[in-house]
Amino acid sequence: MALRSDSYVVLNDGHKMPVLGFGTYNPHTYTKEQVGESVKVAIEVGYRHIDGAAMYGNEVQVGEAIRSKIADGTVTREDIFYTGKLWNNNQAPERVRIGLEQSLRDLQLDYLDLFLIHTPMEFQPGDNPFPTDKNGKAIYHNTDIRDTWKALEACKDAGLVRSIGVSNFNKRQLELILNMPGLKYKPVCNEVECHIFLNQSKLLEFCKSQDIVLVAYGVLGSSRAEGWIDQNSPKVLEDSVFNAVAKKLNHTPGQVIQRYLLQRGVVVLAKSCIPERIKENFQVFDFELNDEDMEVLNGVKINLRYLTLDVWKDHPKFPFYDEY
User: Fold this and answer.
1) How many domains does the chain have?
2) How far apart are CA 125 and CA 134, in angstroms?
3) Tens digits of per-residue pLDDT, 167-214?
4) Per the record, where is site Lowers pKa of active site Tyr (predicted)?
5) For the chain, which terminus, N or C, has the lower number of CB atoms within 10 Å?
6) CATH number, residue 50
7) Which position among 8, 25, 47, 56 bears the catalytic label?
8) How many H helices and E strands in the chain?
């Protein structure tokens, strides 16, 4: 499967998404400013796809980094594909544009390339991203996700965003949008956790059948952020089967897992704040996995999800109870 460093997929609305993206979620071990600096390094290395979100709390710094690389002539705005996300407190239709415009202000960009519904779980509408009651319990809301989607379609028509999609949706939740009356634009992608421990083969097959791109986060096994991730869970990059393939190919485990996903037709997001690692993670275009290697990696099935979102598992629209 020939892939070059400028390889992209054509989305179902005709726009192009680079197949390799740089993630900007920062665990508390790094500052927002460090994330901004890492985005500059990523662009210098060759990344053109930057994946962000309002909920990450660093779009100001990420926007500054992107604009600095435009200002110094490294890239043009058209070279960059930026993904933003609508958080749960802004899913009521009347708040969708509010959420999008806040991201545009923080980033100081005129438009987003892609805007995703971050999760299918609505919270109480308002300015508080994590509304809770007096007992500290999250306050949920029951917005019809199809109404949220119509509001996203309106943002696309207004030129505020070029493509629209979803994240952390299961098949059933995707079908709600795909089968809605009056659908104007299909989701171009579904961004979900995906790696060799959770290869998402059934969801990938369904998405391909609908001309929806599967975008993978957590490909290197998640940032293991305390409070979100079980600290005792096995580490993807330490898997023995996986490391044997990497050793044979004389590439790092991180490079091999990204290559594995790319060859399955998945768009890959990787993140790091370490310049050497950022450069290393981008070096996945000069080798291929053969059928035997792919089969070996397909066989690593332990169905481990790192980001379980257990804190909201009582939400009526919690996505991870379904098989896929």
Assistant:
1) 1
2) 17
3) 999 999 999 999 999 999 999 999 999 999 999 999 999 999 999 999
4) 85
5) N
6) 3.20.20.100
7) 56
8) 10, 10
User: Which amino acid is residue 266, in one-letter code?
Assistant: V
> Is residue 176 situated within a structural domain?
yes
Does a structural domain hold residue 83?
yes
> Quick one: tokens of 86?
């609508």
Please state, in angstroms and as integers, the Cα–Cα distance from residue 215 to each residue in 1, 11, 66, following that order: 18, 12, 21
The amino acid sitting at 8 is Y
Residue at 191 is within a domain: yes
Q: What range does the domain containing 209 cover?
A: 16-313
**Residue 159 CA: distances (Å) to CA of 11, 62, 291:** 17, 21, 43
7 in any annotated domain: no
- State yes or no: 28 annotated in a binding site: no
Encode pLDDT of 31-53 as tens digits: 999 999 999 999 999 999 999 99
Residue 143 burial class via C-beta count within 10 angstroms: exposed 0-12, middle 13-18, buried 19 and up:
buried
Cβ neighbours of residue 8 under 8 Å, at least 6 residues apart? 16, 17, 18, 19
* Nearest alpha carbon to residue 289 among 194, 196, 191, 192: 196
Query: Is 47 assigned a catalytic role?
Result: no
* Backbone Cα Rg of the chain: 19
